[in-house]
Amino acid sequence: MQNFRSDASRKKNDMVPAINMEKQLQRMVAFIEMDGADKARDIDERAEEEYNLIKGNLLYNGRRELQELYTKRNKTAEKNVTQLESIIITKAKMVVQTARQNFISEVTTDIHKRLEERVSEDGYTKILKSLVMQALCMLREEDVIVQVREHDRESIQSAIKELKENYNKITGRDCNINLSKKHLPDRLIGGTVVYNKRCTLKIDNTLYDRLRIVLEQSMPMFREILFNEVPRRIDTTSKKHQIKKTNTKVRK
């Protein structure tokens, strides 16, 4: 009986360390599991933070790129619209300017035609003699060469004596008037060009040149009346009929 109790006691004593070891193992396993769970939770949290950070950066960069792209395209579109508006306005101005210029050209052509009609009238001979006399008085040379249209040659030839007398009355000087064998072109409408003997001085007193001067001086007024344009200032100090030096030689 005693032996049996001693064996049982011995077995019981042997089981105590085993139970304690098992509990320790369970505690270690529980600790490891808890520590692993904590680390897994930390890893998940860090991963979530990194994911949110990366996602935020991607979204921010994406929005910024979209905004930059939108801004760039918007600026390009505005620039294109501005350029298109400028092109349209420029073309419209060119169309208007061309139409105005064509109208002025038509008016100028009509004026030339009317002046040509007046030249064919009887009163033109008196005008021609006045133009020659004006050129003589401006040139004030003893020997001059008078150049006219072929159609006007006979009229001036017959009026040379009268021109000399009138010139002498006006200036108190004598003048030797020679007709040039070279005639003015008909496109100059009429009038005269007078040279000194050496052909170094010239007075252009043709109707074409006189009309050109009148049109140039009156054009701002015409544009203001016709198109409501603000007239530009014209240099009135320049004299279109001043004596000009020229190298052109005219044969007598």
UniProtKB/TrEMBL annotation:
Q: Which GO terms describe its cellular component?
A: proton-transporting two-sector ATPase complex, catalytic domain
Annotated keywords: Ion transport, Transport
Task: Kindly give the Gene3D superfamilies that the UniProt entry links to this protein.
Answer: 6.10.250.1620, ATP synthase, E subunit, C-terminal (3.30.2320.30)
GO MF terms, alphabetically ordered: proton-transporting ATPase activity, rotational mechanism
At the top level, the lineage of the source is: Eukaryota
Query: Which family does the record assign?
Result: Belongs to the V-ATPase E subunit family.
Would you tell me the protein name for this molecule? V-type proton ATPase subunit E
Q: Which organism is it from?
A: Laodelphax striatellus
